Amino acid sequence: xxxxxxxxxxxxxxxxxxxxxxxxxxxxxxxxxxxxxxxxxxxxxxxxxxxxxxxxxxxxxxxxxxxxxxxxxxxxxxxxxxxxxxxxxxxxxxxxxxxxxxxxxxxxxxxxxxxxxxxxxxxxxxxxxxxxxxxxxxxxxxxxxxxxxxxxxxxxxxxxxxxxxxxxxxxxxxxxxxxxxxxxxxxxxxxxxxxxxxxxxxxxxxxxxxxxxxxxxxxxxxxxxxxxxxxxxxxxxxxxxxxxxxxxxxxxxxxxxxxxxxxxxxxxxxxxxxxxxxxxxxxxxxxxxxxxxxxxxxxxxxxxxxxxxxxxxxxxxxxxxxxxxxxxxxxxxxxxxxxxxxxxxxxxxxxxxxxxxxxxxxxxxxxxxxxxxxxxxxxxxxxxxxxxxxxxxxxxxxxxxxxxxxxxxxxxxxxxxxxxxxxxxxxxxxxxxxxxxxxxxxxxxxxxxxxxxxxxxxxxxxxxxxxxxxxxxxxxxxxxxxxxxxxxxxxxxx
Length: 494
Description:
- This protein is of the alpha+beta class.
- The chain has 3 domains: 1-101 and 210-384 and 484-494, Alpha-Beta Complex (2-enoyl-CoA Hydratase, Chain A, domain 1); 120-208, PDZ domain (Pdz3 Domain, Roll), CATH 2.30.42; 387-469, PGBD-like superfamily/PGBD (Muramoyl-pentapeptide Carboxypeptidase, domain 1), CATH 1.10.101.10.
- Helix content is 34%, strand content 22%.
- It has helices at 3-24, 63-75, 82-97, 107-117, 145-149, 170-177, 233-246, 265-275, 317-327, 386-390, 406-417, 430-443, 453-469, 472-482, and strands at 48-50, 103-105, 120-123, 126-131, 134-140, 156-160, 163-164, 184-190, 198-203, 205-208, 212-218, 221-226, 252-256, 279-285, 291-297, 305-310, 332-335, 343-349, 355-364, 380-381.
- Helix 7 links the parallel strand 12 and strand 13.
- The longest helix is centred in the N-terminal third of the chain and has 22 residues, at 3-24.
- It is globular, with a radius of gyration of 26 Å.
- It starts with a helix and ends in a 12-residue tail after the last helix.
């Protein structure tokens, strides 16, 4: 590629990237440490920024970029791909912003992002993970082709449509398993404990991503868990809420926002309009700190107590909802201080099918509080064993005597929570092996003393039961609702 062609092809992209530093660096609000919330949280698909090239911007400032690009192209010893160099420059610009919510998406990444946020996809209805280069069924969604075909958590997917998945990566596995509705995929699986592989033909369907789960815990006491705020969350919530009301919701409502890392801002506002009494929900600020928009609710005050469960992984859109309920004295908050992210992102579509996710607004709670970096403090601080919050993400593969590290320590924490071990050392010793054997005997599987996929399935099922029984935050919320001396007015720290 000639030097002139390079300049013509990438001139506007580079100018735009340079412009980002000038226009967005001052707009960044620092975030606390720890695991970042969903990097695409709070994207309202109805408001997408279209980039339009501008004439003669930062022309002198880009000279160093062109000098470096041309020097590499003309003199670097090894072959280079100009497209890769340009994309690397874009990603480097974003890294300079030091904002974990700002991301660049190439065409493939953008397609995956859009699939994840539209609320449905063509597939079989499973969540898979990669362990030791193998593709494992982590979760089977109810009432899906996968469940009806007999797929189980722990199944190792060997092949999909004749393609071997081992060592090919998670993205390739998802690509083969997803597809248009009414098409089929042939999978070969190895089931834990079975000698021979099993072959299944599964017909894909449009899988609706469920983000709201509800039930009546006791007579008059409802429970709603929102796992994230996607394009269909508000509709799901309204249906679940009305269903609970029809079943006699009159004693209290527990709203579980723990581990909800955010999502679409407008969906959180729509849910808030069902629960927050008439008045303000939140306000959006422009980069100059002027108020862009104030969101209001017209809902009537509920005749029963609402308790919201939060923890350190409650972030972004879930904090907006929790903050509105707390500030408007419409609910008590129980649990741990939230993550602390009060920014809103928008997608910028670029040429070539690429896109940026940019931080463009900040929001304040109804009282004017800035929770960014600080989080929301619960009205009642209640601890929860960490293992009961994160065990569903645990799948280390095979562990045996002599192994050591964080995975072993977490396994020991799980065994301790279940009453099979007294301490966690991070070293898989004979005592750990004996604890595994004892659990395996109680679970009705061969007591090998080795942690394998069969044991993982049984262990997770046991923890599903224990996590509800030993959920101190949920139990505290139930006790709180059962008290009669709290009155109708709630809110504030106690």
